[in-house]
């Protein structure tokens, strides 16, 4: 039986997805992306899940697209297969639950790009990020020139993309690529705790909040503010808003029902 490329584990209301090609530092392929899509969709459609964590192993989150597999491909090979993950943007929009990237070790090339597709990145203190494609005679192909520029600004994105150098967790946090750094020891457990905290909130409201933040990257400020206000108003149609505010006034923990 062939090895599973992506492993799924359920921890309470959190689905943990682990990339599983350790011998090649979790190098990505269309097959990996397909397996990841299926695993993500299964969690999205699972009523008991409120948040998702995507991770690799201590040495590598993912060291990029599979160089050995693609090195001899022609233009038509990569074009016809829409390499790597051409369908991924549609897929990404289908996942409305929050996805946290737990990055330890290398997140390079497609690995860094995959982490950036998640809603936020928590890095272990040994994490290293980079877009080294230029050293291979190619360029990032999964959002590295676009999402990285939006995340850390033009000057630093140019530095990363044109030199192919790596940045460590501290530099990545300072630049705004990662939201926080946690020690490597117990790293995944701690990230899962963060995700469990999110999953304990009102899942539909969390999904609305995620959509609003993502809208900020796609619209003008005025349109984004209008959208946010409408969604804020819409939360008042939920039972969870009534429960959350009542719990605050009554000085007790809220018991959200996801309604
Ligand atoms: N593709 C295929 N195999 C890879 C790989 C990749 N991206 N990255 C690592 N591997 C393999 C290595 O070939 C090696 O296999 P063997 O044991 O069979 O030789 C194994 O994983 C372990 O790697 P190393 O021996 O190189 O480990 P290291 O600790 O010495 O170095 C590293 C680690 C610095 C991450 C180095 O492996 C490396 O530079 N990897 C390539 C990084 C890269 O260039 N990524 C960009 C890919 S292109 C891309 O991603 C395009 C896109 O935007 C979609």
Folded structure, characterized:
By secondary structure, the chain is α/β, with parallel strands linked by helices. The protein is 45% helix and 16% strand. It contains twelve helices and ten strands. A six-stranded mixed β-sheet has the order 1-2-3-5-7-10, sandwiched between helices. A four-stranded mixed β-sheet has the order 4-6-8-9. Helix 10 runs antiparallel to helix 11. The structure holds acetoacetyl-coenzyme A. The site of acetoacetyl-coenzyme A has 22 residues, from helix 2, strand 6 and helix 5.
How much β-strand is present in the residues?
A: 15-25%
N-to-C span:
42 Å
Largest sheet: 6 strands, mixed
Per DSSP, the total helix count is: 12
Mean pLDDT: 96
Q: What does the overall shape look like?
A: globular
Please trace the helix and strand order, writing H or E for each element.
Answer: EEHEEHHHEEHEEHHEHEHHHH
* Fraction of residues in H or I helices: 40-55%
Described by its quaternary structure, the protein is single chain
């Amino acid at each position: 039986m062939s090895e599973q490329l992506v492993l799924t584990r359920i921890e309470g209301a959190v689905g943990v997805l682990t990339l599983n090609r350790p011998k090649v530092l979790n190098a990505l392929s269309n097959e990996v992306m397909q397996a990841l899509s299926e695993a993500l969709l299964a969690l999205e459609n699972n009523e008991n899940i409120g948040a998702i964590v995507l991770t690799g192993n201590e040495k590598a989150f993912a060291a990029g697209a599979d160089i050995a597999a693609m090195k001899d491909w022609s233009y038509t090979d990569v074009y016809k297969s829409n390499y790597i993950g051409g369908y991924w943007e549609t897929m990404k929009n289908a996942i409305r639950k929050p996805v946290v990237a737990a990055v330890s070790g290398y997140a390079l090339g497609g690995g860094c790009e995959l982490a950036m597709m998640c809603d936020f990145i928590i890095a272990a203190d040994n994490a290293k990020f980079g877009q080294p494609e230029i050293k291979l005679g190619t360029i990032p192909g999964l959002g590295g020139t676009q999402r990285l520029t939006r995340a850390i600004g033009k000057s630093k994105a140019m530095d990363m993309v044109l030199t192919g150098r790596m940045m460590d967790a501290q530099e990545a946090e300072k630049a705004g690529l990662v939201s926080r750094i946690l020690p490597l020891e117990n790293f995944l457990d701690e990230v899962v705790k963060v995700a469990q905290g999110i999953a304990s909130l009102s899942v539909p409201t969390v999904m609305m909040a995620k959509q609003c933040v993502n809208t900020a990257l796609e619209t003008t400020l005025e349109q984004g503010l209008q959208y946010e206000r409408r969604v804020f108003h819409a939360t008042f149609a939920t039972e969870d808003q009534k429960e959350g505010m009542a719990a605050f006034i009554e000085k007790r923990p809220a018991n959200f029902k996801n309604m």
